[in-house]
## 1
Amino acid sequence: MQRITSLVDVKSQEFRLNELHNRRLAAELKERQHAVRFNRPERDRERLRRQNKLFVRERVEALLDPETPFLEISTLAANKAYDGEVPSAAQVVGIGIVAGREVIVHADDASVKGGAWYPLSVKKIVRSLDIAIENRLPVVHLCDCGGGFLPLQAEFFADRHHAGRIFHNQTILSKMGVPQVAIVMGHCIAGGAYVPALSEYNIIVQGSGAIFLGGPSVVKAATGQHVSVEELGGADMHTSVSGTADYLANSEMHAIAIARDIVARFNRIEKAPIDRVAPEPPAYPASELYGIIPKDPRAHFEMREIIARLVDGSRFHEYQPRYGRSLVCGFARLHGYQIGVLANNGVLFGDSALKGAHFIQLCDMNRTPLLFLQNITGFMVGRDYEQGGITKNGAKLIMAMSGASVPKFTIVCNHSHGAGAFAMAGRAFDPRFLFTWPQAQISAIGTDQATRVLTDIKAKQLAVDGRHLSEQELEAIRESISEEYKERSSAYYATSEIWDDGILDPADTRNALAMAVSASLNAPIETPRYGVFRM
Amino acid sequence: MRKLPFDTVLIANRGEIAIRIIKTLRELELRSAIVYHDLDAGTPAVSMADVAIPISGRTPVAAYLDTAQIIAAAHEVNAGAIHPGYGFLSENAEFARKVLEAGIVFIGPTPENIELMGDKIRARKFVQRNGFPVARSAIEEDDPATFISRARSIGAPLLVKPSAGGGGKGMRIVRDLDALEHAIVQARSEAQRYFGDARLYVERYVEKPRHIEVQVLGDSFGNVIHLFERECSVQRRFQKVIEEAPSPALSLELREKICETAVNIARSANYRNAGTVEFIFDGSGFYFLEMNTRLQVEHPVTEMITGIDLVAEQVYVTGGHELRLSQSDIVLAGHAIEARVYAEAPARGFAPTTGKVLVLDYPGGPGVRIDSGILQGQQITTAFDSMLAKVIVHSPTRTEAALKAERAMQELVLLGCETNASFLARVLADEQFLSGQVHTGYLDENPHLAAGEFASDLSAFLAAAALLTRPVRDSADAVPELHASLGSWRN
Amino acid sequence: MNHVLELEGVDYQLWLSPCKQGYRLHLGDEVTAPIDFCHQGDGCGILIIAGAREPVRFAIDGDTIHLHIRGRTSVLRYRDPLSALALAQKHAGQLVARAPMPGVVVATSVLPGEVIAAGTALMVVESMKLETVIRSSQNGVVDRVHFKEGESFEQDAVLVTLSAEGH
């Protein structure tokens, strides 16, 4: 495989300005992540200590094998919601190694609102179990949830993908033979009680752990019965009387040791056989990504330079290098795994769509997972293109992408707009994982275009009312529309709403993808099968 | 070979000393018999003896102290002689007398010798009367009512000792006179239990004393010779740890003087057989401490520097022969060091350890002697003394001997029961030891020797243990290669 | 969760991770690599550590590893996390008197059923030529005296069990 020869001048003024800018964005990301992970009011920390509880991050670290990676999912979920008071949506989710096995870790964070589930908490838990189902990953639940946040129940209770989906997903996992272990580290009340109950194995911590459908006060209100927490759903009772819990632990650490021992009993899954060789680091350092991603999001950049800093040895076998050039397609290796890369090098034309559709089928036949690198403003518009069948060619790309059985992974590098964002394995097409870079913009159309359209509409509405706007007034409206639009198409907003699996520092992308590919291979890859391609 | 009035010798002992005695008996073409408690069944001493007779007791130790059973065993196997080894009944005059009354030869001094010299109080009075130097003391039985006040009047520091004691058992140093009475109560209880004799005496404790002892041999014809001295100053809790011969502390002149004194003490006591006259040496002068009327644990260092088999000499003189050697035949050659391997944990205050000997590999080579009582597979318990083996080396000079001994301690592989071998190696390499400037408080003043910091060895031990522990290695092997290569990466 | 190996009374939290040339030993922030162990027959092997080859004699007895390296013998114990963490709590609640070191019982001072106060002498034991009085750390009723006079015991052996009845 040929090595990509980088044409980037790392000494140029442009490179250094970009680097400064992107390093600042990466630092900001790390700061925000650190804050949501660790900044808690002292009184909440103190309460945990009083209850003999470890902080959720300590629990997760104790659960994981030391010296192994943890790919955290949706760290900044809910960062733009609930006035920023529910960091990480009060959930820690990620893929880690427990007793040598790849597992999903899902942990309630009792330091946030007593571990109450908010609508985005529910969304994050459902997503974590979706990941478990799609990739056949066992789950370890660290349960410490005080129940749903009642004032917002309309946003998390009744719908298809609301709280009930958590339990639905648990039953699906069980049916698939993918085991779950739950540790009851606090009170698991009402719906929360079913997380341990629906897990194959569960452990309850003496003293702090309890499982019941209704707490003592609910029981008193409902039946007049006075009952203690211990009698109602204590560790002793559940492990010796009701059989709801399997193992009694003396302490959280003891419970974690038991959970690790249980996971160590899980059968190792034969991974989907895809081509793999010994890994090799890229020839160009990942840190150079900072100098390549333009400071100005509207500026074009060469995707091959990005690929050169993600893949093994910076080696890239480009497919159809002379045709459909706005979509770069080719084979590469990532930590030794063979992957097929589709990267936007401009707007999608008919030929690039056809090339992409063909390449996807090559990869699917060849059992080669697909990596989509998005920087897409959309499919080309205009009479000539429509006459050339841009829509039906786009449909071919979407059909091929959606129908491919191999695992798909998406990185939103910069722009993600229009139907092009769908065709490049957008969230709706269930790529196994979708990550975003800090400067990315995710919206139906670009900010400038949207601002123009929205300002026009506003002006027209006002004109109907007989109002005529001065240029100054128009500018003010334009400004405010643009601000709000930008905010709601930012990576931070997207990740807050869990439209992705998290924002990545570009330099972390290679490792994150390697873990994602490895995780995806726990599920068998089905034989290629497609719908009807409009010819 | 000279004729002896017996052809079978019963060994009333166990462990390494029993084996040591069997080896000489074989050389003398005598049959060896041994008594053993059930706990010792299967130990090498029992399997090496030509015949072994089980004995029992309320405790394992009690079995080896049971005169009646031992004499009955001797009769059973037609043993004409009994060798008591050291410890147990070796210095029990009553036992020696009963053995003789049973028509059996006692390979040791006469009961009268034991009565006189084995009793510390009687011995020191006798020695003092004969004009030899002794330390200031208060003896309880002189006047029990005034014992404590007499002891106080000597002034601190004091050493409280059982009259019938030996081997450091029941001894206590008193630096604050207020603690004297308490120390006496405790020492008395231990004295009663170990020696069946609660009498005590108190003597002035010499700070930084050196323990130097002279090996003597006497026969029934009034001949007494010495085999030079041994230095046993490296002690912990009055327990000897490293012994050597000759003493690095003595000038030629002092050596001659101390050996002469020992011979004279033994001669004036009409001493027969092997014995040891112990002295305290304060750097310039020495005074009589006690006499041990038996073969000592550390006798091999004397054997190494003189080339004489002390057990053989014991057998001959008790067999009625005149000493084969005269003083001028005894020549001191080179330097010998003995290191005692104990089942104990120096870092935990020398607490005794137990376990099964899983691997046992002794050092060897020229000038290295091992007196061992254990075998691979043997269970080490606390029922008996915790000494497992002695490693004795012989070299032309003290420096070479210390180096050889250190190397031997490093080469000694005894796994399964913690021992003091590494500690011994550290002592043998310690500058103060190498300079010869040791005294009985040397180990207490240098606790770092017992602590044994790991420093650079720590990671080697942890690495080896980690690699050899299945759960540790398994959890490393279980991690997929990709994840292992990413280490503790976090996004 | 790290593994724990105990050496001379100190617990070392450590982890082994694989690397190209063998393994890495992680001890706190300290990493020793590469390390490996080649077996050479019964109880013998070569430890490869930081480029050096160290001959090792070893014996494994349950969770106890006896090692002889660089002329030095040591005993290490693997602390199984399940039992160590399970015990950690149990001991706190149980009323037992344990042996501070191996030894022999000289005399027992209490009988089952006897009501005792904290500080009561339970037993006199002998170890290292010294007598030690084992005392009760709390009030209670003697449940069981586990050793008779003259019997020997190991370190940490339960000598006397108490129950809290009547208190």
## 2
Amino acid sequence: MRRPALILLLLCAGSLALTGWVLRQDALRGRDQAKSALAVLLGDGRRLFANHFLAKADAYFHRGRYPSLFEVAEKQAGNHLVESLGSEGGDAGHVQGPECDHSAGPGEEAHAHDEACEHAEPSGGPDDWIARLAARFEPDRHVHLEGDEDKEMLPWVKLAVEMDPHNVDAYAVGGYWLREMGKTREAEAFLREAQRNNPDSCEIYFELGRLTELTTQDWGKAGRLYRLALVKWQAANAKLEKPDLIALAQILGRSAKVHEAQGEYEAALQDYTLLKRVSPSPEAVQRLIDQLQKRMAEVRSPKSER
Amino acid sequence: MNRVFAVAAVVIRELIRRKDFYVLFVLTAAITLLMGSITFFNEDDIARYVKEICLLLIWLATLVIAVTTAGRQLPAEKESRTIFPLLAKPISRTEVLAGKFLGCWLAVGITLIVFYLFFGVISLAREHELPLVNYLQAVWLHWLMLGIVAALALLGSLLMTPAANLSIVILAVIGIWTVGEFLNRVAAKAGGVSGWLIYAVYYAIPHLEIFDIRERIIHGWEPVPWGAVILASGYALVYMAMLLAAAALLFRRKPLT
């Protein structure tokens, strides 16, 4: 009995050690992710790991309190980090709880992931004494990482893209959090790597646009990146039965803001008009259109007075 | 009681002499240090993923130590025929079994302390804090869980061959640990007779996930309420007693030849 157990243990430990060594070698060499040694080692199975690691990053964001596989299936919920990312660019598509405050409107970053949102809450399930006892040993409140704790998510995001360099969600999430943490150089390098591995992804161009907008305030460059994102979105969604309207709304919302910042009100109005068609809260977009039209009128009136 | 302790002391000495623990400890330490040496996005002081990997390795290593140590006690005695001179002494079969269990449980406790000391050092080096109460609770609950596992392996060793016992107990424990807590949800969904059967399994199995407070340790939550710890301790002791009583019943009737 002793020998088979030892062999089994050595095999498990050996494979774990090998994985660690391969990861380290890749990290040290800074290799092209698409050709990572892990791809050779794990084959297509690495995609499963990638999704697991991204979910792990989400669990870390909630300090370990996270719905299980069973609860997720019951609620049919997605990855909350990806959802919170969706909320950033606008109202569109954000899976929201009844008390979510979406008053900030599209383009505002006030609501990244409101604590009142119920979507990150593990569902109740049957109530028996064992479940009640077990619950007392688990993290019992919905809280998020605070301050510089955000960095704790990064290893899982990095591991997710190491496992699957075509996991656009993982790149977008990583880019977003690196930007939020003020690590703009790392964010740009990460997103450029994402762009190399996923040249047709609109999400990556969108994230690059956000990074440019927030760090360099180079509206022209940001606008060009949003336009590229729009082109990529159209190419990817043109023939789809259910196009990704969340991504479209995000791109249009930011593109409109950039146009506004550059004083290109007509182009901004055009983007807002398109956004109104795809946004789940067109009233909020209409308010923005009204504000913009008011500003346009103000700009025109001094000219006419002259 | 002295006879029980004498048997237990032999089991502890045996664990110290064997290489299993040292191999597992060195591997756990090596993998943890290797993973900890990786820098992500130029952030040197990321701690939680290292803690997570270290704790997972500790859980797996101690599970294997508990099952292999407890599972081999009686078959090894039988195989080497040392059980006969042992039982020729003024000691009952129940006392032998109790001594074997106590020895395994204490030996696993010693390994746990060593593993958690290493974890504490890693945690202190990375986070510069040592929440002692949380760690004591983690060790205590982990030890209780391993007590149930050791009792289960001891019982299994009387029913199955050593290899089958090792595989089945490890699979059962990992199964309970990972999906045991969700059986009530499955039962509620299944409904009917199958629902009742799943409920019966749900209430019959020892819920090992209760003793797993890794998430609280990794993410720096406050300690578990002591009332809950006392309840969990009672729950574990009841299961250990039931499994050992069943094992004693079997061992008393089992022919040794």
## 3
Amino acid sequence: MKQGNITRRELLKFLGAAGAVSAAGSLGIAGCSRNGAPAGRVIVIGGGFGGATAAKYIKLFNPDIQVALIEPAERFYTCPFSNLYLGGLRDMQLIGHGYEELKQRYQVEVIHTLAEDVDGSAKTVRLADGRVLGYDKLVLSPGIDIRWDALEGYDQAAAEIAPHAWKAGPQTKLLRDRLEAMEDGGTFILSAPANPFRCPPGPYERVSLIAHYFKQHKPKSKILLLDAKDAFSKQGLFMEGWKAVYGDMIEWVGLSDDGRVVRVDAQAGEVETEFGTLHKADAMNIVPPQKAGFIAVRAGVIDTTGWAPVKPQTFESKMVSDIYVVGDASVAAPMPKSGFCANNQAKVVAAAIVADLDGREPLEARWTNTCYSLISPDYGISVAGVYGVEDGHIVETAGGLSPLGAPADFRQREARYAVNWYNAICQDTWGTSDLPLALG
Amino acid sequence: MDRHLSLALTLGGLLLWGTVATADTDEISTRQTSLLAASCATCHGTQGRMSGAVPPLAGRSYDVLRQQLLAFQSGEASHATVMDRVVANYSEAELEAIARYFAAIE
């Protein structure tokens, strides 16, 4: 590389006002000096794929901006790859991620407490420990909350018996316990919600990897997937894979065939569907209807749908200025509610915030999503999407599914890429660097 | 290679919030390129530094990266599983800017 002739003046001109750069550290971040006042104060609420990425990339794009991340948990457990844990393929500790990179390498102030309230007029956030913090820009990445009022009989107490496991952690462990306790020859029921919900292919990958566990340890068992919709993500690929790998073990019942669960009796291990059919289960997983996380409600950024509408170009709230909403809580269709999208949205938000604090127009937004699902440890499928803004709307400009009828080595490579994808996104989001390349 | 881009990446690695255009006539700014390239990190690690079954991007030659991206787009990369679907609608200038970006990272 040519680097001999450039002058310091040229470099500073190139890097612009924010560019107090030292050569220390591979990213040049650790040695960054901050001269004078910060270039702005940003608070990020939520330390998942969206929030942690937003905090990191704001600091990458302009280290002179002060960033605080509010997240109660010291380790964040991901929903992606929680299905591997459920299938007995991966330890729980391998889907947990900490905040050391954000703290040490990027100088993000990580505050492990709950954000209780947001005042969008005063531009302040109130924390559970009583502190009130001011911001120039606020990023909300609160993920989902369960709509406890949406499904008769399914409240928080019921979820302690029939878990949702749609936020990874103790709920995921509880579901694994239920699966382990089930006798061979038992019936496992998963109830999937109508759109929109977190991780559209999630329920279908989940039954796949539970089938993998049953096939090894409880081969006479059945899986009944009761669905509140008539079509689902990667449907053709899932159904092809189920047939090929598990024969008739998985039965899917769509909305038109009375698949929508309307009542849950967790104690009795029973669900009732729309037309009055009762289904008995030996183990149950209720994936209930969802809404944006609580703090988005407090911030006044959600509409009657329960989700947060945003300006496509920047993901700034349409309802409250200087608040940006990323990830599952936002209305970003046709982008799915996925960790990949949250990570990508966070980068666009980071760039938009940096630009705005610097008095510049936002850059052109572009997002990608590549979503792998595992049917078994050596059978992967995928859907990809590239998104941009046209006429004020988010549109999918490219993408599609991996092919049906692909040879075994193609499926095997997609399974390997799935693991690599998880390792990469966790490195990109939390700096996790020691994840295994093998599935188990 | 764009000398400014190369130097700044080498020195700071700070995703070059400058305004110097790339060599292409489309003049995709370095800021815009940094944002485009940030998408790649979700599978290839921050700044394309992850290695595994998914190959690293950082520090590979511009010519190789450019050729590979264009081969994904034209359908000539027979081993592709997902990149053909991802790059389908990027302009040549965008792909070249992305290739230049990763080539400039040490």
## 4
Amino acid sequence: MEPYVLSNAVAVGLLAGLLWALVSARRSRVWRDAGRELLRRRPIALTVFLAYVAIGLLDSLTWVSASSGGTPQGDSVSLHKPRSTIDRLFPDESYREKSYSAPLADREFLGGAPLRHPGRHLLGTDILGRDVVYQTLKGARVALLVGGFTTLIAIPLALLFGVAAGYFGGRIDDAVFFLISTLASMPSLLLLIALIMALGRGPAQVCLALGITGWVSFARVVRGETLKLRELDYVHAARALGASDLRIVLRHIVPNLMHLVVIAFVLTFSGLVLSEAVLSWLGIGIDGSWGRMIDQARDELSREPIIWWNLVSASVALFGLILAVNLLGDAVRDILDPRTLRERA
Amino acid sequence: MTSARGGLRAGLFLLAALTACTNDPYPAADAGKKLLYLTFDEPPKTLDPQVAYSTIDHLVIGNVYDTLLEYAYLKRPYTLIPGLAMQVPTPQVLPNGKVSYRFRLRDDLLFQDDPAFALDGEGSKTRQVRAQDVAFSLARIADPEVNSPVFETLAKIDGLREFSERLTKLRAEDPRFAQRRIDEQYALAGPIPGVRVAGPLELEIVLSESYPQILYWFAMPFTTPVPWEGVARYDGREGRDLFSEHPTGTGPWKLVDYDKRLRIALRRNPNWYGIRHPEWRAPGATYPETGESGDAAAGRLSPSVVGRALPFLEGIEFRREKESIPAFAKFLQGYYDASGIIKESFDRVIRNGELSPEMAAQGMSLSKSVLPATYYLGFNMDDPVVGREAGEQGRKLREAMSLAIDSKEYTRLFTNDRGIPAQSPIPLGIFGYEEDYRNPYRQVDLDRARALLREAGYPGGIDPKTGAPLKLSFDSPDTSAAALLQYQFFVDAWRKIGLDVSIAATSYNQFQDKIRRGAYQIFQWGWVADYPDPENFLFLLWTPMGRTHGGGPNTANFSDPRYDELFLEMKALGNGERRLELIREMRAILERERPWIELFHPESYLLTQAWLHNEKSPGLSIPTAKYLDINAEQRAELRSAWNRPIRWPAYAAAGLSVLLIVPGILTYLRERQ
């Protein structure tokens, strides 16, 4: 199987999972109300976030269309490569320059030769003449991938360890807490670098490394909450009726942790996107990410005259996503956290 | 009343201090002296001439230790002239097939004054340089405890390796032997047949095979005469220095201050033969009378220096500058005499390859020199797709890929146009470089590249086996964003002819592992000359230097019997008509076989101040300070003109504070009434 088929399947799977979660949340009154409240409080942040998701999705579904006849001349390589809608919107034939050009310029930045496609580059071109708008849009998918995929690794891990420690207590609690303390006592950046060196470079490896280092703090919260929940009357009642541990955990504990999961998801997300940018800056990030763009542009800032458009585009795109997600995260916490609920009431 | 006078006095004192203040970082006593001011960012690792191999090490050592041979200052291609030796020796083939070189040292050469020579007798401050001292250096190179990086190369000297083994064995067998003085150890380990001291000043070097390039090694500090007294005394014990930090040399300069964190200071060595015997008019101690065509125009052949005895300067001051931006700022203020161009200011300093008008108005000049170095892309010739096995198909593929790479554009984007496109492995300034030679496969011609791909069986870049563009991999040990952009440039160029090259950037260790296993296709590499001989470049493609099997620097694993044959003949010849013929034939093989895509020969830009004369960038790391001259009065004038203190902000601030205080005092007086 071609790798791009797999990545398409993953993208579709994630999308389906998200839709399923939304649909099933609509059935519960609490979640439906929370959704409405979120839309009421943060309409702009929500729209911005959804716009990023839409761009990421457009860029995630790729297909090959080589059947357009054997054209040996021109760019036959990209014809044989799986390309997304975004790739198809910016073909090399009509967007590629030779080198730097300023936003909307009609001449090259170095030397001043006329551009092939003057005035077409809204945000200019980079050192190899690639359109910066295109590269910035491509970054959205990587950011969402890092944020989304990694939380999908970190949160189940945190739930597994947190609930096990909180519910069973004793030796298991000791063991899990030992693990958590050990991981937490290592400088996370060093651990990340070591993991990536061991696992190798690549998007999946970076996500895995971020996931392995990212579950610890949430696992603590889950453990604490579970400790509280297992002493509640309905859990005692379930145990008295002879329910198995597994059933109690799945029916009574985990569903009552879901609001924490949603809060953690949103808050971890932005942290992870930023972590990836830091890793890119250290040279071990993911190709095509905004962090990588910033890393490539760091020498350009000290040039005279200054080349700012690469850095600014990537930074603004990164900033927009993080700000939107953080605003949403705050709102979600306000809405779902029982303590703030009580304060509001 | 008294307090008011005191305040006035303090104010006057402050004013005086303001007027006298300057940003001059050097002691006032040095102001009028002919000292050369340069920078270093990382201190030398060692000053041991047998060990030092990096540029900054040689910057100091080369000035402190003289060599038997030297390079003519102005001549290109580089030519050897006698230094401490009377003449450049010619090889003699001995009846047993070995090759002998006879060096005769100049009479009456002295080491610099040093307390170490007290080992020869009470009160002795220096000693004559003898052939034995060169033999001692060569023995040190063979000494495993010295760990010289050039032992393998110089092991061509007859018996050097055996000497090294004997020494190791004796030290291991007898702990008392290892305690003996170092020159006694070498004497007891026995003579080296290839290093024969034929008289106090006569030295014969015998090589077990022909290797004309050996002479270049006698122009490097590795083979400089070293007194055993220095090595024996400076052992780092009982408060004594280490020999690696306390040179005892023969050169025009001696080290007077060695503070690695701040300052390295050299002053004239009064014992140098050029200073003691200007009447000898020795080639290494006299300014040359002829040069290249451009030298007169650049002011390097003015009548005031030509034929005069060296050195012109009183000393050299190296100051540590860890950060490039402040170092460059101090250069612009006139506190350094020469500087490279920092990336941040490149576009301000250079316009269209020339010095910008503002800089030229300050009297600075730009000296460009093409370095004896070659950057290239290489193919792994052991690879089944791009390499030898693919036969005609592989050759045409390599030729097509070579035709797609635009070196000019590459240097424009990534090196600020510093570099000239390379046509063959041999760079400018090395014998065998021909300016009008054009490699037909190093011109950009995409149509011809596509035609060649079609002939190779990849029409439009399509691999018939998969029906998709041919997939190749570009292997690299550098994962930095800057490097990846540069590789992307090549990938994009090959994409234009329909090839699908992907960048496999791994960590250095993983890359080394790939190289060991031979699992790589295309790579980028560069080579800087150790010495100015075509052999030093052409050996990079010689079969015995193969990387995967021999661990040598022939990373392309290129192997061609005819090339090897020509190489062996070329290597043993002196520069001449026959040698040029051989080089041309080898070049033709490389042109056709394309194991390399030659990219460019880098160019270095050096800015020099108006008062610095005779500067000519050597490219190789060889000492040139003795040829330089400085107009110290002009420097002092310009320095003070460029650094007039701007006083008004200080006065303005003082005025402002008075304005702020006066109302307070007035209020206070009013309140008191």
